[in-house]
Amino acid sequence: MLRTRVVVAVLAAHLLPVVAWASYKPVRVLAPELLGMHCAPSGVCVDDRQRLSEAEALRAEALAFVAHKLGAIQRPPRVIFCATEACSRSFGFKKTAAYNVGTLGAVISHRGWHPHFVRHELIHHLQNERLGTWTAWLLKPSWLTEGMAYAMSEDPREQLPEPLQGWRAAFTRWRAATADQDMWQAAQAVPRDEVVK
Q1: How far is C-alpha 109 from the chain's CA centre?
Q2: If both were cysteines, with which of 57, 112, 145, 165 could 108 make a disulfide (CB 3.0 to 4.6 Å apart)?
């Protein structure tokens, strides 16, 4: 009986990473090389090596922009840039242009090679550093986390689809009302159910 449990535990420990890799595509940010990505020492991975310098420039600009606007990122994340639709699909993209995976990294789809998308994801990274990943994800309202990312990244789109536009507007109103406070301390105090009028 004990031997069976040990065998099951060992098998589960070995199969769990494989199942996670196959079923939850954002986990692929941990080892994009397994998908044929080229990862440079700069912290940028690309599926098209000819676009590496472009991807590195986008990441560098976003890091500098976020540091200037919101504060320095302590541990700059790996940023994966997909130049092709096939690469985007392999990381689970359907409609979004980019996503963030806690403090592990960010993935930019073939449609997301624009400064505001990279800034947006690095703002989420900074939120995770400053507020804690679980707090930012589960305990803060979307108008704060997403609203901040849309507003502070200087997303050029005048009108976003709802609820994104409403979140951006709510964050902008909240920030105007808290302008005399440190933004991160004020954000730390916002409860999940707070509504901005």
Answers
A1: 12
A2: 112
Residue 60, helix vs strand vs coil: helix
Comparing CA positions, the residue from 159, 152, 164, 141 lying closest to residue 95 is 164
With a cut of 50, say whether residue 19 has pLDDT above it: no
Which two three-digit tokens encode residue 185? 């301390």
How does pLDDT run across 48-72, given as a tens digit for each residue? 999 999 999 999 999 999 999 999 9
DSSP lists the bridge partners of residue 81 as: 46, 108
Assign residue 127 a region (left: φ > 0; alpha: ψ between -120 and 50; beta: otherwise). alpha
**Shortest CA distance to 149 belongs to which of 81, 86, 98?**
98
Kindly report the pTM of this predicted structure. Answer: 0.87
Give the residue from 50, 51, 105 showing the smallest Cα distance to 80.
105
Residue 72's pLDDT is 97
